Amino acid sequence: MIISFANVKGGSGKTTSSALLISGLTERGYRVAVLDCDPLLTLHDWCSTAWPERLTSARADKPADISRHLEAFKRQADFIIVDLSAATDVMNALTFALSDFVVVPMQGSAVDARGAIHTLNLLKLVEDNRRMVIKSSVLLTRLNPMVLTNSAKHVSQVISKQNIPFLDAAILERSAYRDMFTKMASLFSAEDPRIHNLDKARRDILCLTDAVERRLAG
Ligand SMILES: Nc1ncnc2c1ncn2[C@@H]1O[C@H](COP(=O)(O)OP(=O)(O)OP(=O)(O)O)[C@@H](O)[C@H]1O
Ligand SMILES: [Mg+2]
């Protein structure tokens, strides 16, 4: 299964969401491979440090790298996670054509929603050209656990009106999700008591993983 994370809007939560799903799938015992298309290579570095033995990861700098790596990964992984970078329509379109599921992470803001809609329009173009349907979901990220802000409500309505399905889980704003990149570790192996709400973060990661599995099965 190839799952790609895309939103042409920078900072919408692609890399964080990818890392959370990678953690959940690995915790569930799946073999996971990762393709990092972001020149900063945050996810590739995190994977290499957090799971040097168990997880295969590679970087894709140019369009030709994508199919080459994905073909090789298919033989060795149950799930392949692709973290796309912002504003690269060619890399996005090529990856969509090879994906089983496209996740569009989006913060509850109108700016992120514009990026999400642009990304989903690009996906539609790929679907029309290939005459096939590619599963996709919007994933709300950085939600405030205390209150659903007006802009998050508004954006949810805008997306729902377009008949775009939301994933049946959202990602809360959690300092633990930043700490995993500070420590370059999985939240399932980090036992640092200074990581705030670690148990809740782990529970939410598994909920996200279950929601993705349900969406893939449905
Ligand atoms: N759920 C969250 N809780 C706390 N911080 C978060 C969360 N999601 C993202 N962040 C923070 O927001 C910033 C942007 O997130 P991230 O890097 O995941 O976005 P991105 O879409 O991958 O960005 P880019 O387009 O630059 O690749 C980072 O500093 C990250 O640590
Ligand atoms: Mg990123």
Structure notes:
- With 218 residues, this protein is α/β, with parallel strands linked by helices.
- The chain has one domain: Rossmann fold (3-Layer(aba) Sandwich).
- It has eight helices and six strands.
- The protein has helices spanning 14-27, 42-50, 63-74, 89-98, 110-130, 150-161, 175-183, 198-217; strands spanning 2-5, 32-36, 56-59, 79-83, 101-107, 135-141.
- A six-stranded parallel β-sheet has the order 3-2-4-1-5-6, with helices on both faces.
- Helix 1 (14-27) crosses helix 8 and helix 4 crosses helix 5.
- The mean pLDDT is 91.
- The structure holds adenosine-5'-triphosphate and magnesium ion.
- Residues 14-15, 38, 83 line the site of magnesium ion (MG).
Task: Lay out the secondary structure.
Layout: E1 2-5, H1 14-27, E2 32-36, H2 42-50, E3 56-59, H3 63-74, E4 79-83, H4 89-98, E5 101-107, H5 110-130, E6 135-141, H6 150-161, H7 175-183, H8 198-217
Parallel strand pairs: 1-4, 1-5, 2-3, 2-4, 5-6
Helix pairs in contact: 1-8, 3-4, 4-5
Bound molecules: adenosine-5'-triphosphate and magnesium ion (MG).
